[in-house]
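Contributing new records

If you add data, match the layout below exactly. Sequence lines come first and carry their own label; structure lines follow with theirs. Keep one chain per record. Anything else will be rejected by the validation script.
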Amino acid sequence: MGNLFILFIIIAALTGIVMSLFLLLKNQPPEGRRISLRNFIVLVLVYATVMTGFGALYLSLELLGLSVLLEGEELKYESFPHLVEDVMYFSAVTLLTVGYGDIIPQGIGRWIAMVQALIGYLLPAAFVVTTVFYRETKPERL
């Protein structure tokens, strides 16, 4: 039953990540406005959702017994809240800066961290494209 719950968390996290990215690309500024407070709030929410989604993914894999993160020799945590703190810290640092090296991914965690870092680099570009360079195309009349 516990593994089924963890699988549900993984699916929910991945769904949240994909839907957040879709929301960012779908949310275009009103015509004539280049920078939108609404878009900025959406970007912050997308970052928070992606960070939380990947954090839940790392947490789920750790709870399944797959060691995906190392802090020195192993990921040391005394309690569940400490584990949550470590995976959320790693997720935020990977998304925003590509890491400090104090906690490192291993195994499948490396691939997950690479995808997360790529998303972290692409989100600002998507934000700029949707807020600055987007122009609504109007159909030409013959």
